[in-house]
Amino acid sequence: MHELSIAEAVIKQLESYAGTHPGCTVKKVTLEVGVVSGIDRSALEFAFPLALEVSTLRKLELEIITIPVSVECLDCRTKSEVEKFMLKCASCSSTHVKICAGRELKIKSMEIEEA
Ligand SMILES: [Zn+2]
User: Fold this and answer.
1) By the 8 A CB rule, do 88 and 94 touch?
2) How many structural domains compose the chain?
3) Most CB within 10 Å of its CB: which of 12, 28, 35, 53?
4) Domain membership of residue 58 as a residue range
5) Per residue in 73-91, pLDDT tens?
C-alpha cells in the first residue's frame, strides 16, 4: 500500500527528530495533503496507526489538512481554487492553467512535549 510507506516515512522523520531531542515526545503531527497528490486520505488514516505500532512513537495523534487545488491561468493570470477534476480558470474558463497547489504532501507542524 502506497499510503503505508508514506505513513512510515513521516513517522521515520518524527523518530529521527525525537532521537536527536532526548526527553521530547512528539504528541501530534499535522500533515498537509493536496487533493491531487495521489494520496487517499482515508487510506493514510488507516495506515498511520499500523506504521505507528512498529515505531518507537507509540502514541501520536494525526491531523490531516486537505489542501484544495489552486490553478493559475496562463491566459489571464488569475489564480483560483477549483474542483479536483475541473482544471480550468474560474475567471475566463480557459483550460490553459497550471496547478500551483494541491499536489503537496508535507509535515505542516508537530506538537512536542518536553519531559
Ligand atoms: Zn483565465
Assistant:
1) yes
2) 1
3) 35
4) 2-114
5) 999 999 999 988 789 999 9
- Give 77 Cα–ligand 1 centroid separation in angstroms: 6
CA of 66 to the centre of ligand 1 (A): 24
- Measured in Å, residue 101 CA sits from the centre of ligand 1 at 16
The Å distance, Cα 82 to ligand 1 centre, comes to 12
- C-alpha dihedral sign at 85, 1, 12, 110: positive
Residue 33 CA to ligand 1 centre (angstroms):
26
Please choose, from the candidates 55, 90, 54, the residue with its C-alpha nearest in 3D space to the C-alpha of residue 71: 90
Q: How far is the CA of 79 from the centre of ligand 1 (A)?
A: 8
For ligand 1, the distance from its centroid to the CA atom of residue 87, given in whole angstroms, is: 11
What 3-state DSSP class applies to 98?
strand
The CATH number assigned to the domain holding 56 equals: 3.30.2320.80
Phi-psi region at 4: left, alpha or beta (left = phi > 0; alpha = psi -120 to 50) = alpha
Say how many Å lie between the CA of residue 96 and the centre of ligand 1: 8
